[in-house]
Amino acid sequence: MIEVTEVTRLYGRKVGVRDLTFRVEAGEVLGLLGPNGAGKSTTLRMLTGYLAPTAGTIRIAGRDLWQRPEESRALIGSLPDRPPLYREMTVRQYLTFAAALRGVPARLRRDRVEAVLRQLGLQGVAGRLVGNLSRGYQQRVSLAQAIVHDPPVLVLDEPTVGLDPVQIAEVRDLIRELGRNRTVILSSHILPEVEQLCTRVLVMDRGRVIAEDTPQGLAARLQPSRRYRLEAAGDPESVRALVSAIPGVLRVQAEGRLLLVETTPETDVRPALFFRLAEARMPILQLTPVAMSLEDVFLRLITQETAAGEATG
Q1: Sheet of 14-24, strand order
Q2: How far is the C-alpha of 287 from the C-alpha of 124, rounded, in Å?
Q3: For residue range 150-171, what is the model confidence (pLDDT) as tens digits?
């Protein structure tokens, strides 16, 4: 659905992004991660046609974005980090205006606006001024303008920024629903959000892609050890001493009555744990694998990239 090939964007002598190449398949939800200045916003602006690449090509459903701009942009719905809301319009007026800008034919405009109002739960505020709505409802209106022309591609830049926890949960549910039959690219600083919503992640730093995989795949590649959360019947200190003596166990850390057991990556200590604790009459009550969170992955990747940059610089 989206093909980015060797895309570079320069701002004078400053590099915004360099040699970006990636694909996003139909129906996929791609997360874009990176620290400030990594090139995420530049990438999103090029994908939506607001910025032209200095070099390289971007194709939307096989159409070159800059050779066939009107056709390509008609396939994209965009939610920028600062949505262009007209506060003096009612919600229905604003969405009707957005539908006209997006090329929805006049004969279909009313039905399309009403459908979007229903889909995003905005019927009850359709006659109210946008400027008088809560921040959460304003973000719903922003999402509504992005899909009013029913595009197959959605590009969302920080869709939950500035919202409270309840509003964040509501907008996440909306994005999850919208992504069922669309291709979505999502940029966010909220790592649990990306972990919950995205099927694949691109991690950017200094204008380049430094990692690309599923959240689980990234964690598996970067995790230098296996980790388990263990609860066993018996005195926690006795359990800890027993487990620490098992070959392949690197360290055991207490978490209340639970123990965090870290082992070498090539060692599966579960059989040894079972027999050793059973022999000591301290049966296992809980043994749960602990994966790296996306936050752990992100921090490790950026740390490695910074160290590599300092070494070559």
Answers
A1: 14-24, 2-11, 55-60, 63-64
A2: 49
A3: 999 999 998 887 778 888 888 8
